[in-house]
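All the exercises in this workshop are built on plain-text protein records. Sequence and backbone structure share a record, each on its own labelled line. The structure tokens are whole numbers drawn from a learned vocabulary of backbone shapes. The record below serves as our worked example for the rest of this section.
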Amino acid sequence: MKNVLKTMCLLALAVVIALPLAAEDKKKKKKKGGKRGSPTAALVKKVKAAGVSEETLKKVEEIAASFNTKIAEARKGLGDARQKIAAARKKAQDDGKKGKELQAAVRAVELTDEQKAAQKELQGLNRELNTKVAALLTPEQRQKTKIGGGGGNAKKKKKKKDDA
């Protein structure tokens, strides 16, 4: 009788431990295939992680909220172009292309004039959003978040000195 009671208790304990883990896995799977959040959520998350004050964070959230609808509308104008571009980028990366070759492969995707206009508008909105948010941050915070670096990830060319 004692062995049966011990076995039942151990099984109950195992179930209590296993259920929350299985529930977490289901949540992760649902999240992965679900809809995207707000277009500016990643930016706000970066700023929050940089350790800004509550006042600055509120200002950033207000700015981000004002851009959410504009960015969402510009994304709608792109239609299926985003999937085409992502597929072209993945294929080029799988083929081992990097740098300028990768960019050329992505640019080779055929877009309609409306999609091109929407893409330009989206880039402009993102640039404007980043500029406004960067104005609120200190140089250290800008460096942590990599927002408003002024030129993206462009590399500076080193000048070669002639020894002749």
Remarks:
- Helices lie at 2-33, 41-49, 54-78, 81-94, 99-107, 113-136, 139-145.
- The radius of gyration is 24 Å.
